[in-house]
Every structure is written in C-alpha cells, then in structure tokens.
Design goal:
Blueprint lengths: L1 H26 L2 H15 L3 E9 L5 E9 L5 E9 L2 H6 L1 E2 L2 E6 L2 E3 H8 L17 E2 L2 E13 L2 E11 L4 E9 L4 E10 L4 E12 H13 L12 E13 L2 E13 L2 E11 L2 E10 L6 E12 H7 L7 E13 L3 H6 L2 E12 L5 H9 L13 E12 L2 E10 L3 E10 L5 E9 L1 H6 L2 H4 L9 E8 L4 E5 L1 H25 L1
Length: 496
C-alpha cells in the first residue's frame, strides 16, 4: 500500500508539473497577450498595450501583467496588474468573472476613472480563429499602494471596488497625503451617465487639496475624445480636523458635487479661530485655469488669532463678524483666494488696537484736558466696522467707523493686503467728556454741537499706525465755525 501511495503521489506530481508547464506555455505566449490587448481595447474603447504577461498559480490562479498602457493621448500607465480567477476558468480559457488588482502604480486619477467607467465599445466578433483566452466580465478591482494624481495633487490609495449590473460599488477607499487621511464609500450607480454618490469621512482633511483634486474630474481633460462623457458625482463630506487656505479648522461638513465644467461645495461649515464659518465654494473648471467663487460668513472669530495667522501678530484684538463674496482665478485655491476681488462687510467688537495713540496725539497738538486720561484711552474700542471693496491686493472702504469710550472716528481709505500698509483719511470726534475738558481754542474746532471733531490721516502699517492731525483743515473749519457763529449772532441782533 505504501508503494502504491508513493507511486500515486509521484504520478500526481508529474501530472501537475506537466499541466503547469503546458498551461504556462499555452497562456504566456504572444498570441494570448495580443488577444488580451484586443479584448481590453474593445472594453475601454482605446488601444491597450501589455508589456509582459505571465501565469501566476499562487495564492490564486491568474495572470500577471506588467507595464500596461491605455490610450495614445494622455496614456495611462499601470506598473503591475494581477488578474485572478479560478483554476477551471483559467484552464478552460473562458473567464466570466475576473478579479483585478493594481499594485504599486502611479496613475492619473481622472484618466483612470474614465477607463473604469468607460462604456464597452462594439467590435466585430473574431470568427476566423478560436481565441485561446476570453475575459467576459470583471467582477472586482482592488488598488494597493497606488498613487493617484489629479492636477498638482497626489494621494496614496488602497481601495476595493466591485462591478454591479450597471454600476460600480466603492466598498472602501482609503486615501492619505501629508495632511489628508480619509475613508470613502459609495457607488457609481449609472456608468452610462457616470453618476453616483460618495460618503467621505476624514480624520484630517486638506480642503484646498480636495478641491484641487476634484477639479480635473469635471474639466473633461481626462477624455481622449473631443466631447467629454457625462459626469455627475456628489459627495457628503465630514472631517474632524484639517486645513483650509493654510488655516487649521475643526468639525467640517459640506455637500460636494462635480459635474462637467463645475465643482461646488455647498453648506460648507467648520470651526475656525474660535468662531464659525458658513458658506460655500464653486469652481469653473472648463477654462485655462479654474475660476473660483468664495462666499460665506464668519461669526465669533478671535481676531487676535486671525491676525497672528495672517502675519500681523498683536495688531488688533476683538471678536469678528463678517460676510462677503470673492472671485478669483489660479492654479491653486490659495492663489485664487489671495488674488481675488469682491466685497465684504466687517464688524469687530470689544477689541483693542495697540499703539493707536489718537487721544495722545490730540493732547500734544492742542493741550491737555483738565483731568488725567483714563488707562487704555485711544486703544480700546466698542466697535470697528467697514464695508470693504477688495481688489488689486487692496481693501478699500468709504465708510469706516470706530466707536470707543474717548472718541469716535469715521473715514475712508485703503489697506494693502500684501504689505499691510494703510492710508486713511479720518475725522476724530472726541467724547463729550473730553470735549468739555478742552480749552477754549480747542473747542473752537468743534464741527457742531458739544463734541470736537478733528480731521486727520492714519498712515504707516497695521502693526505701527501713525496719525497726523490736519491742523490747516482744522483751522479752516474753525474759521467757518466762527463766521457761522458771528453771522448767527448778527442775525439774532437784527431780529431783536
């Protein structure tokens, strides 16, 4: 019995070895490679070239394809592709459900997605010869350590995808970059229209990077044909933390949609600098470079933290409330934002502007009021507000208002957003308390009523503002006030 068992084992080994060698020789020849190239080209509608092909028996029988390229214009290059199936389909030469794995490749993401969702091209059946191997359908696709590049952005991906009747299910999609760590799932429910929905959950998210990664998908640049295929992918996005325009945020949520020529983020909200942002971003992607529209409002933002991020630490404090809209163009979201133009309404409450020595300047110019100036006079304010027109690197206002304990101020001018220089023409209106303490000469400069109004100009930088009082204009105003006062007295005497 032992001799019989040993003989049977030797015979089984010989048969298996012979079968392996025969099948390997049968499958790994140029005819099989060219056959697969014809079938793949028909499936995606573009030329497919396979560098090398070999048989793989473990862990599952199948084929190993190296250096696979798809297309001639914007060709897609896959370093290694593994086609897995059962032993019986492999030996029969008829594979009805193939599992494909792409490993350690760097792929153009929009181009790869176009191939995954491409409708099968109609080809004439090859009746002149019996094909040595036929792949009728692909059941699943996995990505392992694949770098997907879209525009200037690259993420490293592991994904599990499965084909349904007329769709593609995204069972799991893990992506990471230097900031982003996200997991996505969902489905392309209609391959003809390339329409679907995703759920994206991120532990950390580079929001600029996500927008820039999505933009080429809607631009149509991945399509080899002159007319791009339909495209309509929506996504619900959430992120515990991340960055937007370089600033750290928390608790982000948004609804995104990518269509031909457009990317949108609606209902976008997150926590930023101790406050909250609500708004949206839209990008036109069918031009030479994306055109961005930014809109939204912020409430409860800590201004000290904001200006510190902007590179002007210690220049102002308070709580910010603002709303507005901006439009810009650029190869990146940040470039478009920093060069954008538009309008905004800004209000800062209960803050302080260090080194804004307005009351001190008034005292030095016109004499000291009767009592000591309270601590912090001229720096603390109740409210600072302005409507801003942004463009050309400047923010311009015609209705600046500043309300504080010792004086109010109104004016117009501009701030250079790049150099932080400023030039503002203002009227300084002293409080009734300081006006009543002023000497008779200073009081003559009052425009009307019981409060002294003095014209001035604020120049310098945001960090080091300097105010100069316009004494010539003040004297001119005093002269006009004197003439008005004497005219009124003369008229009163005539009437009497």
């Amino acid at each position: 019995m032992r001799k019989i068992a040993l003989a049977a084992l030797v015979l089984l080994f010989v048969v298996a070895l012979t079968t392996t060698l025969v099948v390997r020789s049968w499958l790994a020849n140029d005819r099989i490679k060219s056959t697969l190239e014809v079938q793949a080209s028909a499936a995606v509608g573009e030329p497919v070239h396979i560098g090398t092909l070999d048989v793989r028996w473990f862990p599952r029988p199948g084929l190993t394809l190296d250096n696979v390229t798809v297309g001639t214009v914007r060709s897609l290059s896959i370093d290694r592709m593994l086609l897995s199936t059962g032993l019986r389909p492999l030996l029969s030469g008829h594979i009805a459900e193939a599992d494909i794995a792409v490993e350690r490749s760097q792929l153009d993401a929009p181009r790869f997605f176009a191939v995954l969702t491409a409708p099968a091209a109609k080809t004439e059946p090859q009746t002149h010869a019996v094909l040595p191997l036929t792949i009728d359908a692909i059941r699943s696709i996995t990505l392992r350590d694949v770098a997907l590049t879209s525009g200037r952005r690259t993420v490293l991906v592991n994904a599990d995808l499965a084909y349904a009747t007329d769709g593609l299910t995204i069972r799991r999609f893990d992506a990471r970059s230097n900031i982003t760590q996200l997991t996505a799932s969902g489905a392309i429910t209609d391959l003809t229209r390339r329409a679907g929905h995703l759920i994206i959950d991120a532990a950390s998210l580079d929001l600029d990077g996500l927008i820039e990664f999505m933009a080429p998908f809607g631009s149509g640049s991945a399509e080899p044909a002159s007319k791009p295929n339909p495209f309509d992918i929506s996504a619900q996005i959430s992120a515990k933390a991340g960055r937007a325009i370089g600033a750290a945020f928390n608790d982000l949520a948004a609804a995104s949609r990518v269509t031909n020529g457009r990317v949108t983020l609606d209902g976008l909200h997150f926590l930023l600098f101790g406050g909250r942002f609500n708004g949206g971003v839209a990008a036109r992607t069918d031009g030479p470079e994306p055109q961005y529209d930014f809109r939204g409002s912020i409430t409860g933002v800590d201004v000290a933290r904001l200006v510190d991020f902007a590179g002007a630490p210690g220049t102002i404090s308070g709580t910010l409330q603002a709303r507005g809209s901006l439009r810009g163009a650029g190869s990146s979201v940040r470039d478009a934002f920093t060069t954008s133009s538009g309008s905004s309404q800004v209000v800062v409450r209960n803050g302080r502007v260090p080194r804004l020595e307005i009351v001190r300047t008034v005292i030095l110019a016109f004499g000291r009021p009767a009592t000591e100036r309270p601590l912090g006079s001229g720096e603390e304010f109740r409210e600072l507000a302005a409507d801003l027109a942004v463009g050309g690197g400047r923010a311009t206002t015609h209705n600046l208002t500043f309300a504080s304990r010792d004086f109010d101020m109104r004016g117009e001018g501009w701030i250079d957003l790049r150099t932080q220089t400023l030039d503002l023409n203002v009227d300084v209106i002293l409080s009734r308390e300081l006006s009543s303490q002023a000497g008779r000469d200073l009081y003559r400069y009052a425009a009307k009523g019981e409060r002294i109004m003095l014209p001035g100009r604020i120049t310098g930088t945001v960090a080091h503002p300097s105010i100069t009082l316009d004494t010539a204009q003040a004297l001119e105003r005093a002269l006009k006030n004197t003439i008005k006062s004497r005219a009124k007295s003369l008229l009163d005497r005539i009437i009497r």
